[in-house]
From TrEMBL, chains A, B:
This is Probable glycine dehydrogenase (decarboxylating) subunit 1. Residues 9-381 form the Glycine cleavage system P-protein N-terminal domain. It comes from the Archaea. The gene is gcvPA. GO terms for molecular function: glycine dehydrogenase (decarboxylating) activity. NCBIfam families: PRK00451.1. The glycine cleavage system catalyzes the degradation of glycine. The P protein binds the alpha-amino group of glycine through its pyridoxal phosphate cofactor; CO(2) is released and the remaining methylamine moiety is then transferred to the lipoamide cofactor of the H protein. Belongs to the GcvP family. N-terminal subunit subfamily. CDD domains: GDC-P. It comes from Pyrolobus fumarii (strain DSM 11204 / 1A). Its EC number is 1.4.4.2. The glycine cleavage system is composed of four proteins: P, T, L and H. In this organism, the P 'protein' is a heterodimer of two subunits.
Amino acid sequence: MAHPWIPAANERDRRIMLERIGVKDPIELYSDVPKKLMLSEPPRVGLGKPLSEEEVRTHVDKLLARNRVFRDPPPFIGGTVCPHYVPAVVDAIISRAEFYTAYTPYQPEINQGLLQALFEYQSLMADLLEMDVVNASMYDMSTALAEAILMSLRVTHKHRVLVPASMNPEHYEVVKTWVSGKNVEIVRIPVERETGRLNIERLEEELRKGDVAAVYVENPSFLGVIEDRVNEINEIVHQSGALLIVGVDVTSLGLMRAPGSYGADIVVAEGQPLGLGLNYGGPYLGIFAVRWDRKLVRQMPGRLVGMTRTVDGERAFTLILQTREQHIRREKATSNITTNEALMAIAAVVYTSLLGRKGFERLSREILVRSNYLAMKLRSIGLKAPVYPKARIYKNVPVAFPGDYGVVHRKLLEKGIMGGLQLAKYPLISDVFDVELSRVALFCATEVHSKKHIDMLVDAIHEAIEG
Amino acid sequence: MAHPWIPAANERDRRIMLERIGVKDPIELYSDVPKKLMLSEPPRVGLGKPLSEEEVRTHVDKLLARNRVFRDPPPFIGGTVCPHYVPAVVDAIISRAEFYTAYTPYQPEINQGLLQALFEYQSLMADLLEMDVVNASMYDMSTALAEAILMSLRVTHKHRVLVPASMNPEHYEVVKTWVSGKNVEIVRIPVERETGRLNIERLEEELRKGDVAAVYVENPSFLGVIEDRVNEINEIVHQSGALLIVGVDVTSLGLMRAPGSYGADIVVAEGQPLGLGLNYGGPYLGIFAVRWDRKLVRQMPGRLVGMTRTVDGERAFTLILQTREQHIRREKATSNITTNEALMAIAAVVYTSLLGRKGFERLSREILVRSNYLAMKLRSIGLKAPVYPKARIYKNVPVAFPGDYGVVHRKLLEKGIMGGLQLAKYPLISDVFDVELSRVALFCATEVHSKKHIDMLVDAIHEAIEG
Amino acid sequence: WPEPLIYELGGEGRRGAILPYESELEELEALIGGSSRLLPENMVRRELLLPELSEVEVVRHYTRLSQMAYGVDLGPVPLGSCTMKYNPKISEEISRDPRVRLLHPLQDEETVQGILEILYHLEKWLAEITGMERCSLVPPAGAAGELAGALMIRKYHIDRGEQRDEMLVPDSAHGTNPASAAMAGFRVVRIPTGPHGTVDIEALRAALSPRTAGLMLTNPNTLGIFEDKILEIADIVHEAGGLLYYDGANLNAIMGLVRPGDMGFDIVHLNLHKTFAAPHGGGGPGAGPVCAKGELVDYLPRPLIEYDGRKYYWDYRCEKCIGRIRAYYGNIIPLLKAYIYIAMMSGEGLREAAIQSVINTNYFIALMRGVKGYELPYDPSRPRKHELVISAKPLARETGVTAEDVAKALLDRGLHAPTIYFPLIVDEALMIEFTESETREYIEEYARALREIAETAYRDPKLVKKAPQNTSVKRVDNVYANRPTSVTPTYRVYKRRLSGEKLVL
Amino acid sequence: WPEPLIYELGGEGRRGAILPYESELEELEALIGGSSRLLPENMVRRELLLPELSEVEVVRHYTRLSQMAYGVDLGPVPLGSCTMKYNPKISEEISRDPRVRLLHPLQDEETVQGILEILYHLEKWLAEITGMERCSLVPPAGAAGELAGALMIRKYHIDRGEQRDEMLVPDSAHGTNPASAAMAGFRVVRIPTGPHGTVDIEALRAALSPRTAGLMLTNPNTLGIFEDKILEIADIVHEAGGLLYYDGANLNAIMGLVRPGDMGFDIVHLNLHKTFAAPHGGGGPGAGPVCAKGELVDYLPRPLIEYDGRKYYWDYRCEKCIGRIRAYYGNIIPLLKAYIYIAMMSGEGLREAAIQSVINTNYFIALMRGVKGYELPYDPSRPRKHELVISAKPLARETGVTAEDVAKALLDRGLHAPTIYFPLIVDEALMIEFTESETREYIEEYARALREIAETAYRDPKLVKKAPQNTSVKRVDNVYANRPTSVTPTYRVYKRRLSGEKLVL
């Protein structure tokens, strides 16, 4: 009784309310529940008794003290998710109660601010990607890709999807799960051993077999490799009648061509670098865009905010094309997604606004230069960095070690350095390297890795290998 | 150039603006400054170069890692400032940008929210203290008391002020400083060695000497002693024509009589316990109240918010009685205070609203019981707790040790316990105890000290003494 | 004051953020011998259309936009089926801790024991509350949990060598149920609602067949009515070889009192951003753990959180499992908030919250009894649980004022509209869920407002149809918003139209 | 929607917070043998009039009130003399760190070395910026720093055996200067402003005497004009045996470019909540360090922060010092924010900020040139610094529309009013300070608004006098607010009046 979060749970309110309802004991309101289903006592959950705020603070504080934060230097774990700079403004804005305690803005008249922020998110992402239509968010890149592939099946009515063998193995597994209810074959296209790029011959070969709904390419790839034959890929994919799905590292777009410029039908990306933080894996943000094409837009999953006008002709914003969604179309919907990552989309638009044109160009340059500096330093101590000798890399550097990287990793950890991603975790991708997987690690260097941090890492690796 | 906090510091804006002004170089705008005064280069401040957000985060993180936080158990340091529970809601509200980035609400039409919140602060404090007028805040209790004494001089035109010898020695020093420009004598009234209460005979003696502007009493005192002869004090002080200034521990007012009920003309209190946190000494909040009396209110320092109406007759709030203030009255002002602790006043009103009647009663009871439990436990290991054998205590317990407390304190610290306040810091008050000051420490127990914490402390003290 | 678009703010050359070590860049470029050759020539971007603003401008823009949004911290959001309860500030405070925020998902497990311990206990608690054995915390939202559940059902039958491709879904179900079933490859069979507002058992029996994979149900259902024949339903479906899937959207009414597992459900998903007080974020992030019992445990998406008596770890082993439903481990921040909520409520608190949510609903129903213009369809004497659905059909019939008009008129009084036109089986539906977070006074105000709107409608229906008038913008033109020639999903499309292109969708 | 008072919300029996270990209380009471005897009988409180609300209600009430407030994060606050610059969010983030918030001021110094190191460097930086030797960080606001400074001057002269009880203060000075001097026991002697808007040197000479304790000055002064004869002024005052006190309120225009110490000032106070970007908090907390050089260092209030090469510590030694100005060490949180600001700006950044603030002022003046109704008093051709004061005297004379009316009309356009009727030496004064945080577009908009308001005034003065119309409330009745029979400083007074008492002040 008298709980801070349950205002009416007090004697007076209870009495007034129960009297009006006409019951003595609130349990009478459960009279339609079969007796045997009613629990005789509350479930044993929580910590033995209700904790007060101060108690839960102390309790969680003790637990979190068992986590180890790598801040100086930040982790070098590479892949789709890397440490990035989170401006303080981003947290300040998404901590605004009006935003974070709002529901999906079904009532546009009282939620113009939320709708406009989401419209701006869609718009800035559209400009970054050079795509015309961006939805209001998916859960993360893995599920955005899964939805893109499901969408390609609906649009093309074909049954094969080609993906790069070098893609993020976690994303691959997610895709496999999401399409498992459909009649579809996912085919992995190998990468060139020299350049790390997609093997175009093998791609063409698979396309020739026909029935291809979509080809998925990454740029830069999960392994950091820049794909420069995008025009060729565009051409051959579209000649085959398949859709081209591009997975892009958004941070690269300050310097690198946007996927809209090389024919992408659908673009997916991980929004995590855009001011979201690491969050031990989530929440993140799935960026999802399509070309201006009736068929594509109508088959697109997820919510869309549009710019419109009021009955008085003033500019206004509202949810649009809702007839695609599950609450109207039910089993015919383009997706089951309702709750998405709206607040993370707001974080991303605040981040992108803060950087602006100049800042975004700078971001790409910082990452390009730092990751190539890391690669050079690693080569200088005799490592194969990147593994693909002729690859041009961005952010991520796949590195081959003379022996088991796991040993090196543990030595780094002892020195307070969280090293690269141990690719041995992912047996699936043992076919993308000539060296054993246990010898390969994926490192990243971003704008949060200073020269000192990188030098510190390389020195520590050197010591670990020599020592 | 192009600094995030200086929007127009970019080439284009600069050019447009300087052209319109009609100067080539902005330094021309300093042409009236004597040449020899212009620095040839920027001052060497900061850390060698401008730090980015991420750099300053890492830098400060390293520095703060050198602080040691006592959380479980919280510090037992007694006195005016003790650890107290800070509801998460308080920080959430005072982190609202509209509040913390606002100026003093001189324009009532656009700041009704801020004004209403401050009016509510004044009103809730008035109800707690049973005083009719509360100002919108002073810096802290020490300066509130200094201002109260200065005010008593203005109101009575007398020159002596009587204060308890047991008062917070830091407050005493602050008062001495603030009145040092005035012709006034501060007289310390001793406390009874048995009960810790004010020595009423000595008080009467000093009052009989005449020329007394004010008598200051504390309840409970700095040393935790409850003063129960408030009716007698009220009578003899007012018979002498002096003002009665009461310093009160607000947390006690859920159970203890309010100073308005025993004749206080002016009340001062430290608002720190009301959800402000420890903050290594500040910001805190000086609560300042006076009786409904024209002379007192007109001589009161600080800003006041009043409830009024608009020209349309709607309820509204605005700053009132501003003619007392320095921006209008200049050297005739009641005080020089302008910037106060408005945001802390909002914290206090949010805190007090959250607790409400029942919660506030509970707060007082928690502290009363826990501090008396602490005293009992300390007695059980043979210590004099409280030092005054017949004192009734609240929150603070002055404890006499068999030897130098400093030695015990260091042993506690080794065990992760921040012990009591070493009164040896304050030679001034050596006259309030029969034992040597080095043997006395002031401990507090509040609602944040669990039984386990208190037992842990007492066990550790026991071990330290025995060992 | 209308707020400009971000594109209409700022100016050339402004910047709102400095990156961490910008001052090093030249040195690094020199060390690697210049950066020009790092990018393939044909991959160099020529144009980047982003606005340029200072930090001050960005802060003001989004602070002002936030003031034009509406959430639970400003007032009640009594949307039926959404369980918009209060989001404790303590959860926000704790979840800002850098010892969560700065953890990389692929850090070595020994460096994340604290968060793993939290997740471990959270799973146990959720299993206990639902009466299930294990939960996967990975699904990032309820719909993802549903998809996982549907795929589990699918794989379960396949592994048993059965061809079961039909999923039964009541006509009152949330749209996500059929959508998820369809995504998992099922054909959806609709089960009608009977006259008492519960599943029509005869129709259910008739729909069952050797192709039946399972039944997706929420209980209490979207009408707020408890499916009192649930044990019978479970028996029937199980006997027919189907599985029972529980949609946790409406758990708030019964948590701590009744468990889906005891009702016979095999799989349950939860919405932590509804029932367990994690904020909804204007649309997300959420968290939608999926739980199972018996054989179905093996099918849960991986990884699961485990403890070997010494350390906590992720178990990726997957013999029968459906695979992975999202990269990494789900939305950790809402999961942490649910942990805090349950720790602070404990079993008694959850029960208390459920009971109060039901009292609130039935108090409102009591206040609405006899108010002209509205009716409570399906057995009005029966108590509702977390929510209720009233119909404005009499009002619409007699005055022309529809449920949507009523919703907009509520906005005009500073009250948030309920969910409207759902469930589809009720005409002119107003679906209202107060949750336990609302005060008695507010419920009374809501009832009073509905009564007064109806009174106005009977007096002057046009007046109601003009609403809202007091909101920051007038009624939004939905037709224009969706017309192929004017639909505008991004500023890019707007600019292209401005420049003369004919863009038609 | 008007927001009720907190007293008008909630209901009997509700609670908004649970204290930490409430469940232990009964056990503890039993252990100490009951709690009834702990309080003296005659000290027991009989009645406590506080409202009772749930957490939800409290959060909503104050969130809604916050939306009815206006700060720099919503838009510019160009109040002259207030230096309302942008408050960086990073400072808010960092200063929430529990490793600051949870430190008790009387913890052993070895346990607070981190914060002490920060304060140590901050002091050094402030001394460098002002050209002083040492600073005391203790004063919690500018006025407290001023009081400290005035007391230092007083004690300095007393220690030298001189009877100097007159403080010279220009008539354009902030009200705090004379008020602080008076609190320190000085007689205030007003020095007139000369025709160029600077101190009238002849009048200054005439005012000097063996009783002169010092001169309190701000430079640039409140007209935004740099006292170009400052070196001469310093010489004259020093020769007469007086000291020079610098009011740091206007430092923003010259920081990093000119130092008060070099101008000849002996004591300086700073407002970190103005110049160094700590937020103003709706009135406070601030931080007003006081700095000194030469002999005056000994007089600074204690404690000072010191470093012995091994550890940082507070030095309480006080031979000549004035004592202590506040308990503990001042307002640590704003001090920390100033540290962060200076670390991020460094010397160049401070200089850049100063220059831009001056450009902004002079750009506005350029835009206002020739606008009918306003004039720039005192040497209009001379550049202003951080702020300017224009006079609406022509407008008032010709249309009856006063500076206050103009201020309210600005509010109506969503623009914050400037400081009005200050400094007192300018009739119908509008004192405007944009700071470096404002955009060119905003300055242009402000100039446009002032021009349009004047145009309207010449056309239809009554229209202007009706403002504000678009604000959340109409113009507030100040007469009623201050009338002895209706002045209402608390709800307690309101209730007493309601109950029939005649309360007159």
